[in-house]
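Run log // design_07
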């Protein structure tokens, strides 16, 4: 394992702990409509979107 892999693993574990510690429901506005959902779902969804964007942009550079 390289130091980069260890760093990514630590960041992912910390992000997952943060996401699953926030379990209360919250209102989220999506442009016009408003939905009520658990905060962990919104955080996890945005994390997945961010990871996919990072993968996509990383592949375009290389």
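design_07 sequence
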């Amino acid at each position: 394992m390289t130091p980069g892999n260890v760093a990514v693993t630590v960041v992912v574990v910390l992000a997952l702990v943060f996401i699953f510690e926030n379990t209360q429901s919250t209102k989220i506005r999506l442009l016009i409509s408003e939905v009520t959902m658990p905060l962990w779902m919104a955080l996890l969804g945005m994390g997945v979107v961010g990871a996919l964007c990072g993968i996509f942009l990383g592949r375009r550079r290389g």
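Residues 3-57 form one domain.
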